[in-house]
Specification:
single chain, alpha+beta, 3 helices, about 25% strand, globular, binds zinc ion
Length: about 180
């Protein structure tokens, strides 16, 4: 099945690989969420409760109740949305959470050439990310596994779209194959 807007088998296999590494996946609202709810201020980026379709609460706690996504059920939801002509939900991964090997996940988000240059300087050539991908705004996200002890900080140099942010405890980052949001 190759629906133009749907996710293919390769996409789902990639999510299963991420799940196998211990990443906590969460569905996020569709990029056109404001069409059905004007209160959404970050369409395509907010975790949702699949049972209600509303933004999820209480997902930011480091040891919160969110334990991950039933990918089979989520696939059925996405296929149902595609049949109804609705944009697919996205998917995000909770950062700061332990992975299967005890390390924890952080995301380094960079926008612009300066941010990328800064990250390369900080990380050095030997530090290989677990996963890297381009974002809708033309930046990069790099996911890293870091030692599991102690807090995983979250920082943002400007809170905006030029520069670098580190997503650690209590954060979430949208991952492929989610529709890019600018
Ligand atoms: Zn939303």
């Amino acid at each position: 099945m190759a629906a133009a807007e749907g996710w293919n088998d390769e996409d789902w296999a990639r999510l299963r690989t991420m799940e196998g590494l211990g990443m906590v996946l969460v569905p996020v609202c569709a990029p056109d969420h404001t069409a059905e709810w004007a209160g959404c201020r970050s369409p395509g980026k907010v975790p949702i409760d699949l049972a209600t379709g509303h933004h999820m609460r209480e997902w930011t706690a480091r040891r919160g109740s969110v334990s991950g996504l039933d990918l089979d059920g989520f696939r059925r939801v996405q296929e149902s949305r595609a049949r109804m002509g609705r944009a697919p939900f996205g998917v995000g991964v909770l950062t700061g959470r332990p992975l299967a090997d005890g390390r924890r996940l952080v995301s380094l988000d960079m926008d612009g050439a300066e941010g990328l240059a800064d990250a390369k300087r900080l990380l050095g050539p030997a530090r290989a990310p677990t996963m890297a991908y381009r974002t809708g705004s033309g930046g990069w996200h790099f996911l890293y596994a870091v030692p599991g002890d102690g807090p995983v900080p979250s920082r943002s140099d400007d809170g905006g779209h030029q520069g670098m942010a580190l997503q650690g405890d209590g954060r979430q980052t949208v991952v492929p194959p989610s529709v890019p949001v600018r």
